Amino acid sequence: MKHLILGSILLAAGAAIVALAIAPDAKGGVASPADLVARGRYIVESFGCVDCHTPHVLGPNGPEPDRTRHLSGHPADMQLPPAPALPPGPWIASIAASMTAWSGPWGTSFTANLTPDVETGLGAWTPEDFIATLKTGRHMGRGREILPPMPITMIRNMTEDDMRAMFAYLRSLPAVKNRVPDPLPPVEAR
Ligand code: HEC
After folding, report:
1. 139 lines ligand 1 (CB under 6 A)
2. Is 163 in the pocket of ligand 1 (CB under 6 A)?
3. Is 151 near ligand 1, meaning CB less than 6 Å away?
4. Which of 6, 7, 14, 104 has its CA 20 to 30 A from that of 70?
5. For the segment 16-65, what is each residue's pLDDT rounded down to a tens digit?
6. CB neighbours of residue 2 within 10 Å
7. pLDDT averaged over the chain?
């Protein structure tokens, strides 16, 4: 009996040490790949990424993200009329019911495919490309400027570790082939 109790105490202590060893560590300690993905999922799910980057459909309780197209961006096959011209005044933006197409003074922007599809998503990106994008607000840190409503001003404040965790989670998703359209010029410029 004594042996059994001692054994379980040792086992518990061992488990605690293992847990400590693999816990994500803000000071740059080692997090296991599974922990990184779990943290990334937690951030992506609670930072609004899903709200904009997953097409919404009407469910029993109103619009909800279509998890079969999780984080795959504005659906390429969605037929949309041109965004409406709004009357002068304080109302400046329109949003498609999918939550993936947004029109305002910057033009019409379509949320990006964040799944690991190589041709239409982030499949060819490195973690460094992802971090550079979120820090600079430019495509892969060197391309065109990313338009609203992508909340770069907020997201760029995240730590690189958290950005890396998000990328690890995005990498773990099923790849969805969906080529998101390029942005369109502002309504008044057409
Ligand atoms: C309010 C809506 C919104 C939220 C919230 C949002 N995004 Fe975006 N995101 C967009 C839009 C719109 C674009 C495309 C802008 C463009 O085409 O210039 C975009 C673009 C991107 C891009 C650039 C892709 C490329 O090819 O350059 C990345 C990466 C990205 N988002 C990641 C994220 C992550 C990660 C989160 C959560 C932490 C997030 N976004 C939250 C709307 C949003």
Report:
1. yes
2. no
3. yes
4. 104
5. 444 434 444 455 567 899 999 999 999 999 999 999 999 999 999 999 99
6. 6
7. 88
Tokens of 179: 């080529």
Distance separating alpha carbons of residues 174 and 72, to the nearest angstrom: 10
pTM of the predicted structure, to 2 decimals: 0.87
State the CB neighbour count (10 A cutoff) for residue 169.
Answer: 22
Which residue(s) pair with 103 in the sheet? 94, 108
Q: How far is the centre of ligand 1, averaged over its atoms, from the C-alpha of 143 (Å)? A: 14
Q: Is 51 in the pocket of ligand 1 (CB under 6 A)?
A: yes
Residues near 186 by beta carbon (within 8 Å), at least 6 away in sequence? 104, 105, 106, 107
In this structure, how many other beta carbons lie within 10 angstroms of the beta carbon of residue 102? 23
Regarding the beta carbon of 112 and ligand 1, being less than 6 Å apart is answered yes
Task: Report the atom number in ligand 1 closest to the C-alpha of 138.
Answer: 27
